[in-house]
Amino acid sequence: MAATEATRASEAPDVTYDVLVLGAGPTGENVADRAHADGLSVAIVESELVGGECSYWACMPSKALLRPVTARSEARRVPGLADAAAGPLDAPAVLARRDDVVGHWKDDGQVRWLDAAGIDLVRGHARLAGPRRVSVDGRTLAARHAVAVCTGSRPVLPPVPGLAAAKPWTSRDATSAKTVPGRLVVVGGGVVGVEMATAWRALGASVTLLVRGDGLLPRMEPFAGRLVAESLAEAGVFLRTGVEVREVRREAPGGPVTVVLDSAVSGGSGGSGDEIVADELLIATGRAPRTDDLGLETVGLEPGSWLRVDDSCLVTDVPGGWLYGVGDVNRRALLTHQGKYQARIAGAAIAARARQVPILDSGPWGAHAATADTAAVPQVVFSDPEAASVGLTAAAAERAGHRIRVVDQDLGAVAGAFLYADGYRGRARMIVDLDREILLGATFVGHGVGELLHSATVAVAGEVPIERLWHAVPAYPTISEVWLRLLEAYRSQGPS
Questions:
Q1: Is 79 left (phi over 0), alpha (psi -120 to 50) or beta?
Q2: What is the pLDDT averaged over residues 307-321?
């Protein structure tokens, strides 16, 4: 701790609140809202825009870019609309709508929400200054009960020679770019890489997608990555698997960028020394916690580290039961909706501990336990087609020691899919725990399947018995009828 900061921390604080929240993204907002709803005084500290990464550089702008892509794709498969949707996207109009969606990178509306909720906003860079103390640009704030670190994560550039100097795009640049690049190289086959390859190809860029492994979306069932890869190839994306970037060169700012490749695996589709020249390079290969300049050293933690927490999001490496790590910083599930879920759990736990509740409801699925982080994490990849999953994959379930049955169905075979679009292609899978006769996971790939996911999430989180699912009747003719087909297929496979 700097001498001036140490001196400040030893003095009486400028203001004391029940709870201090560091970071005003969706996670921080939800911690603050939940704690305040329980009668605690709360201040939230933010150095950038209130609303955070999701509102301005991630979820909202990326989906604004992708929605016209999927809408046009679906329309092209419906007679009567196909001819009208045959032309290219109006890229300037798509980018202008994206700008509207993010409020032109102004946070007035979010600030008004905080004001209406009765939550104080402190602008500035927050650093911990010892137990229950936070320094914000020379001021010292104190917390009676809790400090919640909700600062999120940031993109990481791998240590590739020449990469940093080449000023590549990160996810922020990819979602906020003002013009369509002529040639774009995307490195990474995860969600960001797949979604941005989808969006910018549809907006007119020539896109090459480079993947170190042998496929896309490695956290999902293998068929999800295969179906999305097939669709990307049909859209004109050049996919190269089993390759890694060896070197990057950019001779002049704003000029072309050269990407030098090596084969990362035996049989990879890139030879040693292959070069690709592009106008922009997007690196989408990993993230790190925003904890490097947060004063963690003042409470015995390593700057830049992920925060280890229990199921209530209380940091386990700091004594006293006052520091919480909520959202991306704890690395449990780097998804906005999971951060908001954790925030509701943590806010309730903070309030319960402030009231000195003797025993928290911390068992599985309890009010103070973020059980869904390990058992029922939902995710939608807004590619064309969409990929959506919740819970465990077959491989993960087997690694966990479950005795399972995998049930697959052709999603395009149900009547709702036939009506949705000609030539609808998709697949559905459910993972059944044979010992408990409940769902452990489900995966869907196809147009519109993001709206199928919550029913699967309810089934997994609720541990709904298979026999009861027979009584959840899907409306006809909808794509949701695939649930009936999955149950029929499960029954036809005989007793466990």
A1: beta
A2: 97
